[in-house]
């Protein structure tokens, strides 16, 4: 793919900077409640997906790692991707039996080790981690209800300012859709695409993948697995 993504990546980095500023403000106001610290990898075991712009950005930074390290991570990514598929299949089956809030609660309890986490529990691409990873330790408003890290000191039932995750997701999807417009993708289901970090690392974002002009074949398998859900961490 010959498209220059630098403009889109710059806009994404600007949004990341805003999110980081919010996290630092909240953590500064609630020092004892926000317990994120070096060595804690709780958020690195959460089951969540990323939008297209996040996936492509992470993929581009992943490509800058040396080949040996990339291959090591890809082996773990393949394992994680298989497990994520099974977990989502399980959650999807339960969706017809319980309400949405219960699904969110159950999903939050699922554990899936991120393939970017090394043996020392450090992220190989920490500086470029997705937005979900950046705001994991502070209260989040998801579907009108507050959610936060189970290791934090926030007390259930007490009022705290919560970041409206849907607003951030809307901005990410808007930016993702502009990328799809730029590449000329013909796949409508890509408009709501969310994928695990493992899939983002393994995918080759080519003209063929997007079904752009000049490419051949049907929609790639990833399109069929696109999720309209997202961050439940």
UniProtKB/TrEMBL annotation:
Q: Which Pfam families does the record cross-reference, listed alphabetically?
A: CxxCxxCC
**Name of the protein in its database record:** YkgJ family cysteine cluster protein
Q: Which organism is it from?
A: Desulfomicrobium baculatum (strain DSM 4028 / VKM B-1378 / X) (Desulfovibrio baculatus)
Per the UniProt record, the lineage of the source organism begins with: Bacteria, Pseudomonadati, Thermodesulfobacteriota, Desulfovibrionia, Desulfovibrionales
